[in-house]
Amino acid sequence: MEKFKACEKEMKTKAFSKEGLIQSAKLDPKTQEKLEQELERSKQVLAQRVASLFVQLQDIVHLRLLDKKEAFLVMRGLLNFAPHKAEGPALGYDQYIDYQLCDSAIECHRDYLLLDEYYVKVLTLKEPPPYTSGHLFRGIEALPGSFILVSE
Asked: What whole-number distance in Å separates Cα of residue 41 and Cα of residue 47?
């Protein structure tokens, strides 16, 4: 009966509850060490790619590497159109950043999205252009209105 109660408690524990997070943190030492090594390798690869991109774009655009607080504010501004929400609270802690970023309510409709009180349309290219060149999207940039153009 005790085994059944323990099994039932384990099955009912929610993944992001305090107990669930404690349970998920329990790993055997070999697995923990392997995961830490993989994380460290991934961090090094990411740092190398950022440095490479920085060197490649340095001649074209003035670049500045942001600290985590500034990067959080930039991401928050992209996800929240309302100025009072974009300038909302600062980064509280380093985990679950996705929950801290967006405070806007979204409604999905057939022809548009309603993000708080802003009407939003998304334009996607089904096929990439047959060639690439500088300022390929110059025509789109000339359109009147507020928009965010993202390529790659």
From this structure: 10
Alpha helix positions (H), 13-108:
18-25, 29-57, 68-79, 83-86, 97-101
Phi/psi at 30 (5° precision)? -65, -45
Residues contacting residue 120 through CB under 8 Å, at least 6 positions apart: 81, 112, 113, 114
Q: What tokens were used for 26?
A: 């329990």
Q: By the 8 A CB rule, do 112 and 120 touch? A: yes
Strand partners for 107: 114
Q: Are 115 and 104 in contact (CB under 8 A)?
A: yes
Domain boundaries, the chain: 1-61
Beta-bridge mates of residue 118: 115
Summarised one tens digit per residue, pLDDT across range 60-101 is 778 888 888 888 888 888 888 888 888 878 888 788 888 888
- pLDDT confidence of residue 19: 63
Tell which phi-psi region holds residue 79, choosing left (phi > 0), alpha (psi between -120 and 50) or beta. alpha
- DSSP annotation of 90 reads P
Please give the model's pTM, rounded to 2 decimal places. 0.53
